[in-house]
TrEMBL record:
One of its GO terms (molecular function) is acyltransferase activity, transferring groups other than amino-acyl groups. Keywords: Acyltransferase, Transferase. Gene3D superfamilies: 3.40.630.30. Residues 1-150 form the N-acetyltransferase domain. This is GNAT family N-acetyltransferase. InterPro entries: Acyl_CoA_acyltransferase (IPR016181), GNAT_dom (IPR000182).
Length: 150
């Protein structure tokens, strides 16, 4: 089931999913795992203005996605940056597609005009997912981040 996030209820599961990507991958450029309280505050701030969705199965959050501010200038008010993370044990099962389908539908029915995704490469699964929804590569930033010596 895909539903709106419930910050207090979902923060621990979302934190668990995201912390894997912090500690074990270069997908996110954060270095330090987050505490549940910090994640809950982030969720509340984002969900107050933007769609924030979770994929729940048998009472477990298996993934989440959201849209958020892309840049902090008035001219960008109709542009969002999208984010999606899945529990590492549940990738490749179509959950990401279902989540993104719902997010994109919500964005299209709102006053947002452009959605931007930033993908750390290589990440063939994320690139393929975004291409299915019509995203196209418009820029490639080389060596702008450094994590795990990469």
């Amino acid at each position: 089931m895909i539903r709106r996030v419930r910050p207090a209820e979902d923060a621990a599961a979302i934190c668990h999913i995201y912390n894997h990507y912090i500690t074990d991958t270069v997908v996110t450029f954060e270095n330090d795992p987050l505490e549940r309280e910090t994640m809950q505050l982030r969720i509340e701030r984002i969900a107050a203005r933007f769609p924030y969705l979770v994929y729940e199965q048998d009472g477990m959050v298996l993934g989440y996605c959201y849209a958020a501010t892309w840049r902090n200038r008035a001219a960008y008010d109709h542009t969002v940056e999208t984010t999606i993370y899945l529990d590492s044990n549940w990738t490749g099962r179509g959950i990401g597609y279902e989540l993104y389908q719902e997010l994109v539908a919500e964005l299209r029915s709102s006053d947002f005009h452009v959605a931007v995704a930033s993908i750390t490469l290589p990440n063939t699964q994320s690139v393929a997912l975004h291409e299915k929804f019509g995203f196209r590569k418009v820029a490639h930033f080389t060596e702008v981040g450094n994590k795990f010596g990469k």
